[in-house]
């Protein structure tokens, strides 16, 4: 039986799966890691992580980078020339949440394609491809995101169609696969079934996989050689990075396999939220570990709800476009979900 002070001294953080912190096993591995200087490519733990990461997405090589945004921007600068145009769904992370870095770092122009939760039509893509007219920038890259931050996954058939089109034009594809393993479990395929339809792929070790820092960029050997130099240019040439890579190894060896539990808990969270009549749950966007909902009442004070939950040691973000997002992860279980539901019900009874 839950009591009102059950979680008095600990936080329940549903803002994102980025809030996961390392497990005891990871901390122990980090302390004991065998390290060297990774700029000289002699950090054995980092090399081991990169080898495993490349194998898991069936690419020739991989590179350890500080963050997902760093990995995506490194991908762009390593694929394109300054002044190129990148075709990308308009709601993708690179467009929405990476601070306009593509213009600053790679010096490229993003040409956005209308999408529905990351999915685009081949017709819309074809329409935006630039030919060799003197007035046009060169179309240098196509970007996709799977799983998408809307909570949806992109069907493999869609990715294959876009991949085949890119091959007919000789244009590479970069996949923002920050949550590629979530996408794989949702689609009931292997991650390699997704990554086969791109030339490069970035995925995060710190989103739901509990590593404190780090992402991976993978692709062909020649591409990763180029990216390695650009990583140094961008300030990402780390030294004894093996202390961080040690946690990443555990992420890939162990934490990936437990992601279905986060999906299961998201389904449970959505089920419990449906008990609150004032909420509208977006049931069509429950593919991975995210639950989206809105408050039906007009002019609802979202700030007050977030503040009330914070006083009860529950962290959620303010809504975007009136949509709340809750994210399950390693540190969220059904018992904590039950507590959150009880507190939201308590607030709704007082506020409405």
TrEMBL record:
Residues 13-294 form the Aromatic amino acid beta-eliminating lyase/threonine aldolase domain. It comes from Atribacter laminatus. Its EC number is 4.1.2.48. NCBIfam families: GntG_guanitoxin, PRK10534.1. Its cofactor is pyridoxal 5'-phosphate. Pfam families: Beta_elim_lyase (PF01212). One of its GO terms (molecular function) is L-allo-threonine aldolase activity. It is an enzyme of class 4 (lyase). The keyword Lyase applies. PANTHER family: L-THREONINE ALDOLASE (PTHR48097:SF9), L-THREONINE ALDOLASE-RELATED (PTHR48097). The modification N6-(pyridoxal phosphate)lysine is found at residue 207. This is Low specificity L-threonine aldolase. Belongs to the threonine aldolase family. GO terms for cellular component: cytosol. Keywords: Lyase, Pyridoxal phosphate. GO terms for biological process: glycine biosynthetic process; L-threonine catabolic process.
């Amino acid at each position: 039986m839950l009591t009102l002070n059950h979680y008095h001294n600990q936080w329940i953080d549903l803002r994102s799966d980025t809030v996961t912190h390392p497990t005891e096993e990871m901390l122990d591995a980090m302390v004991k890691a065998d390290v060297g200087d990774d700029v000289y490519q002699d950090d054995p733990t980092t090399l081991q992580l990169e080898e495993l990461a490349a194998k898991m997405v069936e690419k020739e090589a991989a590179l350890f980078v500080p963050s997902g945004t760093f990995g995506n921007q490194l991908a762009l600068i390593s694929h394109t020339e300054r002044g190129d145009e990148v075709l990308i769904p308009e709601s993708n992370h690179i467009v929405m949440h990476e601070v306009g870095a593509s213009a600053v770092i790679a010096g490229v122009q993003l040409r956005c394609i209308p999408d529905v939760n990351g999915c685009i039509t081949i017709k819309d893509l074809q329409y935006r491809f630039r030919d060799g007219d003197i007035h046009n920038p060169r179309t240098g890259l196509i970007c996709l995101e799977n799983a998408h931050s809307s909570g949806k996954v992109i069907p493999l058939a869609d990715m294959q169609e876009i991949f085949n089109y890119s091959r007919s034009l000789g244009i590479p594809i970069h996949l923002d696969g920050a949550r590629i393993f979530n996408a794989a479990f949702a689609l009931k395929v292997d991650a390699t079934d997704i990554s086969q339809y791109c030339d490069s792929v970035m995925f995060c070790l710190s989103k739901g996989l509990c590593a404190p820092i780090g992402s991976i960029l993978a692709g062909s050997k020649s591409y990763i050689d180029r990216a390695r130099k650009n990583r140094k240019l961008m300030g990402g040439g780390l030294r004894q990075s093996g202390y961080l890579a040690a946690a990443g190894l555990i992420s890939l060896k162990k934490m990936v396999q437990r992601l279905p539990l986060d999906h299961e808990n998201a389904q449970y969270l959505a089920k419990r939220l449906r008990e609150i009549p004032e909420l509208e749950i977006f049931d069509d966007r429950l593919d991975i570990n995210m639950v989206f909902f809105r408050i039906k009442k007009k002019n609802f004070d979202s700030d007050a709800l977030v503040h009330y939950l914070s006083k009860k040691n529950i962290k959620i973000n303010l809504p975007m476009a009136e949509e709340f997002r809750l994210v399950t992860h390693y540190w969220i279980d059904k018992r904590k979900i039950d507590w959150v539901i009880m507190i939201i019900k308590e607030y709704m009874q007082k506020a409405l």
